[in-house]
Amino acid sequence: AQSVTQPDIHITVSEGASLELRCNYSYGATPYLFWYVQSPGQGLQLLLKYFSGDTLVQGIKGFEAEFKRSQSSFNLRKPSVHWSDAAEYFCAVGAFRVTGGGNKLTFGTGTQLKVEL
Amino acid sequence: DGGITQSPKYLFRKEGQNVTLSCEQNLNHDAMYWYRQDPGQGLRLIYYSQIVNDFQKGDIAEGYSVSREKKESFPLTVTSAQKNPTAFYLCASSTEGHSYEQYFGPGTRLTVT
Q1: Residue B18, phi then psi, degrees to nearest 5
Q2: Are the C-beta atoms of A48 and A35 separated by less than 8 Å?
Q3: Do A102 and B42 touch (CB under 8 A)?
């Protein structure tokens, strides 16, 4: 079964500083990987996704993530954080065509980002 | 605008009552999902449906039921058998094909006392 680990529950950065959120996954085949962001009391918004090809993927709001197969990681980065980036971030791994169908996602427990002005 | 709607935003019920959460999408997506979110636990899959009139249990289906009579709608009933129903519930949908990303609704916060 697949699993996702986000080792940092909370991270605090200063506005303008760089950011890296860690994500490690466990999956038996080539994973499909996602990063989502959630503002308080809201749904999740997709930041970026990786399926195949270039291991560095660009997303919305200036975010990028790098897939490293050897480390089973898919860390999210941003060169300069803005106060509006304060939110909770979730990494997810996708499994396809499991028994019974469906494209199930397994989510990590999330990382809460606080931005200091 | 296309999207997913969930209603109501906040829902309050007394213990022992069944309650149904609404989820509607106009994205023409085939697959729909229900997740439960608790602080510090991420999202956990309750049920999912790939096509109309078919659905599968997720990881925490006990105490919940769903139906999928229309492509656009996937209501979730939280029954009195669910031991700890207070949570934030998120509905999502996705297309078939290579993208597989899921689009989420705004969520319903259910409080049972």
Answers
A1: -80, 150
A2: yes
A3: no
